[in-house]
Structures are given as structure tokens and as C-alpha cells.
Design goal:
It is a single chain. With 215 residues, this protein is mainly beta. The chain has one domain. The radius of gyration is 21 Å and the shape is globular. It starts with a helix and ends in a 15-residue tail after the last helix. The C terminus is likely disordered.
Amino acid sequence: MKKVTTKGMLLLILLFLAGIVQFTQAQEIVLKTQLETNPAKSALFKLKINAPKGSTYNIDYGDGTEAITKKGNGYNEYTDHHFADMAKVKEHEVRIWGANFTEFMVISNQKVTEINLTDCTELINFSCANSKLKKLDLSKCEKLKKVICNANEIEKLLIPNNVTWLDFKLNRLALADFPKKNGMYTYGPMRPAYLSADKINGLTVDLTDFLKYNE
């Protein structure tokens, strides 16, 4: 039996090297949040996740409680959590891993400061609005179609070319850093930039380059 198992493993390795069989790596999402949860006020950390039917994934809320395991059902499922160590810890790192997620949404106003989705090659829809993100890299999400990240503090945004729905108004991107329009894109307004009176005096603003973003 051991000999057959070894041969089978060697065959899989050879097929993988030949490009006939490919091993898929389960996706992982890591984020940080400063949300202060309070069950008495219905203030909970909330996510909406879509994982394939029959898949299994895990959520570790980073507060010392045991990671939970959930079953994917092929449609969007809401989950919420109260951080058990809220009295001592003001920022939590949350990890979600184990399935090829197709949709991931941080419910609005969750005070997310960082998020890493570089493993999420199957992700189609993503949302994290009204939070505290300063940068967002979705460039490795090759199947991504819809992105909602409005009302953050984003200064750097990377998205793949296949995104056809994008809402990133009320952020802090410079005009030159706007993604090229590729469908239903909502660019602005951005958050206002405040200048002192001495810097405004004699200031010339040229917005002609903006025209190409609306072509």
C-alpha cells in the first residue's frame, strides 16, 4: 500500500510539473480594525462573505477567542462579532482563510485601517466603504469586477484592468493616480485639500488633464 501511495504522489508531481494538474491555494484575507464593539448598542464587527458551496473557511478575530469554522453555501452570508478583549485592545487583526472567496464585503463604518487581499485570485466583488484605509492593492485579484471603497483615506489604489464597476469617491488620490476609466467608474469628489492663505496666493490650477478621464 505504501508503495502504491508513493507512486501516486510521484505521478501527481509529474503531472503538476507538466502543467496538466494544478494545485489551487486557498485564499486568505487579513485586515486590521479599530472598531469599538459594544453588544448593548448593537455595535458589532460585521462582514459579508460568499464562499463556494461545500467549501470550508475559518475566521480568527484576533481577540484570543477560538477561530470559528464556517461552511460555504454559494451565496452571501453575514457574520458579526464582539471583540472579547475590547477593554484592553483597541485594534484587532482579523484573518479569514480556507476557501476561494468570490465576494468579500466589510460592512460600512467598520474602521478598517489595513487590508491584504493579495491571495484572492477568485474574488469578483469587493467592498470596504466609510473606513480608514490609506492604501488598497487589488492588483492580484484577476477576476475582480466590482469595487466599492468610497469614503476612506486612500492615497494609493491598485486595481486590475478587468474591473468594470468602481466607486472610490471621497478619498485622497491625486488626479494623476486615478485609475483609467473602464466602465461604471465614480471618481469624485475627492476629500478636500486644505491650504493656508499664503499658499493659495498666486496659485494656478490646470484641470485640463481631467478631461481624458471622462472619455
